[in-house]
Specification:
Keywords: 4Fe-4S, Iron, Iron-sulfur, Metal-binding, Oxidoreductase. This protein is of the alpha/beta class. It contains 22 helices and 35 strands. A 5-stranded parallel β-sheet has the order 8-7-6-14-15, covered by helices on one side. It has a 4-stranded parallel β-sheet with strand order 2-1-3-4. Strands 24-23-25-26 form a 4-stranded parallel β-sheet, with helices on both faces. The radius of gyration is 33 Å and the shape is flat.
Amino acid sequence: MNVGAFICSCAGTCDIDLEEAREGIDDVEVAASSRLLCQDGLDGLEHVVEEYDLQQLVVTCPEASAQEKITEAATELGLHPDAVAFVDQRESAGWVHDEPQATAKTARLVNARNAGLEEEAIHQSLSHETGDAVAVVGDPETAAGLAESADVTLIADGNDFADTEYDLDDVTIERGRVVAVDGSFGEFELTLRSRVTEDCISCMKCVHEGPPGKVTRHPVDIDPDVEDESLPELCPTDAIDLEGVERTLEADQVVYPDATDSARGGRIGFYTAPLTASKIAAIERQLGGITKPEFLDLEMDVCAAGDSSQAGCNECVEACPHGAVERSRIDEVEFHTELCQNCGACTSSCPTGATMLREPSNERIAREVEALLTPDEVERSWIPGRSGSGIDEAVVAFVCSESAEDALQEYGRLAAAGRAEVDYPPILPVRVNCTDTVGEAHVMHALAASADGVAIVGCGGSCLHSGPDPKAELVDRLNRATTDLDLGQRVEFFAPSPDAPDEFVDSVSTFVDGLEDSPVPAGEHEATGGIDDPDRENPAFDSHGWTLESVRTILEHVEPEREVIRGLKDFGQVEVDDACTLTPTCSNLCPTDALRRTKTGLEFNHERCVSCDLCEEGCIEDAITVHDGLDLSLLPENRPDEDDPAWTTVFEGSMLECRSCGKEFTSERSAERIKGEVGDLVAGMAPHADGSIFDYCSDCRSKLLYRRSGE
């Protein structure tokens, strides 16, 4: 495919050397530039497209109206609108960095976008049908507004709607206060508690004679604080129950302004305050069901959730903030893809690649990171560490596409408008759906590709997915791992606020200034995303395999003092004690085939283990313990003298061969244990046996016993 890159300085407002930027762009048919591409430069763009027969354009332009003009010009030349990709050279580069930094960063951003486009996933969609029932809690205005398009039930939640100014003629009003909301889009169930039952005829007697302000008229209900035992006697239909009665209400969608984001934040079909126009539009758009992009690629054959009624890995269930993953059975997880919000929490936590984001895929992210960090052979280099100009510290920044990206763009606008001094180090951004997308594999790969540091830039306390400080645990773990790898601390999380650029500038500057140059050379590592193990069936760029590949690359350039690298959750070390009787349970349960039973004992493959703990949970003798961490001494490259260096003996013991047919049928330890427990009870049952009856397999033992009974 012929790709052309076009760089614009936005009427000279971007402090970018256009010629230098063009020279820094790789793997394109042509790189062109213009001072004002969306106006004076359009004729030139059209000429270049036709001359080079371009089929894909990468254009530096963040302005929506200008993007429309450029896309329209490209489509008139026969290109598909999706064949024009845009890069922000302005808010994220030319307005917040000096010329050498902005020039270097712009070229890198174009290279990264071009590399990522080669891995772009084909669009797929899914549908999920529901009804039109919407439950609105305590908000008559929203209920009235939705009544024309939806089947609306307004739950009073202690409010009195007798004198409301809103038209509720087409709204069903339910008494009671909400005590619980369960379920998901299309299947919500609200539990309501009230002190007035459905036998109420709204005769107003309790309203008239009850405590002032404590009994509502429409619908009739009594405040939970009222303790007047005489109230039930007032009701002619016995509809007052001061103990309170509960009932449930079903709905396809729920509007609950007073619910907390932490309780239901970001879930499809559940809306909290503030109720913006976009939220109301989303509710109406989803009436009857949804058609949405398919965000996940699922390969459940490699899932380590469990087996044979034994629970194993539960990472995706614990990680998902939207209720899109559940443990449907003790040994199985189920994905409700219609509820997925594309945050990537399940994919970054999954060690085996059973669930992977379709866009951006891990491979796409890898290629973008590598493009950002690849050195360029130019005479006046602005490559990290090559000269005193340009980018001196190569810091990859995984930037959340929601609030964090908006904040960084606002910093650029503030700087350009002269309303704030914004000048921070030229971190190299990789756009991700949410910081939940980022896991240990992404960070370790960036370091293996020569990044001096990794910044995870997210929403912080405003995040609807993870809540406040969402990556603290990940950052702590990875800094422990990088320290053990003799790299020092290289990872930090940032939550930029649009109205506090100084805080972000100070924190990022402090982080970048404290970094040492990476010992890993730039431009040498291109990830395959896996382990060189032909018997391992996990998909490429699964967290375990990708992380291990990256660690191995880093180890070529460092000399860690520790054998066990802590902080990497997707690696486990198996320890087996003397209680083991060599039953095949652990090897049968292991989802990655990291355990195998041999004639002389039990062997373990550390390279394959994802620390799902299934072997430990399933061991009937409680003989297995799994420890976290990557033990370098157990990797095959560090055991060159072994016949099969990938495998380590973790328990020595022999299998017993049947004295009659020669088939292995149990371990010597198991046979001795059973013999000790019941040997006296069966002594003499098989007088024709050559030795103990416990020396025979079940088939041959049955024949011996049958022969005895036939005498």
